[in-house]
Design goal:
Layout (H helix, E strand, L loop, with lengths): L3 H12 L4 E4 L6 H14 L3 E6 L6 H16 L2 H4 L2 H8 L6 E4 L6 E4 L6 H22 L3 E6 L4 H4 L3 H9 L5 E7 L2 H9 L10 E4 L5 H14 L6 H11 L3 H15 L4
Parallel strand pairs: 1-6, 1-7, 2-5, 5-6
Antiparallel strand pairs: 3-4
Length: 262
């Protein structure tokens, strides 16, 4: 149902350089919310890099994921084919190995298998500093989105401290942290003894209200030539309590069986 209020608030925060942590249980729509917001931000000229920490079991893999995310997010397709691509790779302390996706021609990066632990640490810190350098050079706002951020301490318990040291010197960059583990994320950002204490505004997503979800469901049925009664919508939302995934799953089931009654 678009969560227009939340998207507007998140976009305004990012455009003003405000760091935000978005907390929501799984299947509540935080990733969909972020995708919609990223589309609007890019439309307004903000450079956005997105990195999923869940795909990084250790710091070596995080370096690879972050390199790929920054390359794709901070360079346009045109720039990736020109000198800016080479300039980007020259910034790396250790040259990554590029792999071309045969389906769409996009690049992803891996690090040499001989990479030492000290090289990993230096490269990771270099990558964390890169968004601010790009923002200053190009006079653009930059956003770094870190999804599944609750994984950060699993990757390395000292990583939040490293991030805080780097990020607090980046007023040109908005850092957006997404996660589903409410207790852990609130601890990381609201407890005084944590490195990231009060470094980001907390936004929590909950169920979608019946006032928003009800009309949306009726409109989606109508768009396919089918109808759903107000009583059926009310009962559906009573069962799911407005949880986005559960609501859409049950609505899809009702939509499917409604064909038998059309």
């Amino acid at each position: 149902t678009d969560r227009l209020t939340e998207i507007a608030a998140l976009r305004a925060d990012v455009e003003s350089g405000q760091n935000v942590v978005v907390i929501a249980p799984r299947r509540t729509g935080k990733s969909s919310l972020m995708r919609a917001c990223v589309e609007e931000l890019r439309g307004s000229g903000v450079l956005v890099a997105e990195c999923d920490l869940f795909a990084a079991p250790d710091k070596g893999r995080l370096v690879e994921q972050l390199t790929t995310a920054l390359y794709r997010g901070l360079l346009s397709p045109f720039e990736r084919a020109g000198r800016r691509s080479l300039d980007f790779l020259r910034r790396m302390p250790v040259a990554p190995v590029a792999t071309v996706d045969p389906d769409d021609g996009s690049l992803s990066f891996t690090m040499p298998t001989t990479l030492r632990r000290g090289d990993v640490d230096v490269t990771l810190e270099r990558l964390l500093r890169l968004p601010a350098e790009v923002a200053e050079e190009r006079g653009r706002r930059v956003a770094l989105v870190l999804d599944e951020f609750q994984e950060v301490t699993r990757i390395d318990r000292d990583l939040p401290r490293v991030m805080r040291a780097v990020f607090q010197q980046q007023p040109e960059v908005a850092h957006v942290y997404l996660g589903s583990h409410r207790h852990m994320l609130r601890r990381l950002f609201t407890e005084r003894n944590e490195p990231l204490f009060r470094s980001a505004k907390v936004m929590e997503l909950g169920p979608i209200s019946a006032a928003d979800f009800g009309p949306f469901l009726a409109e989606r049925f109508a768009a396919t030539g089918r109808t759903i009664t107000t009583a059926a919508v009310d009962r559906l939302l009573e069962i799911t309590a407005g949880q986005p995934y559960d609501t859409q799953e049950l609505a899809r089931f009702l939509w499917a069986i409604s064909a038998d009654r059309a």
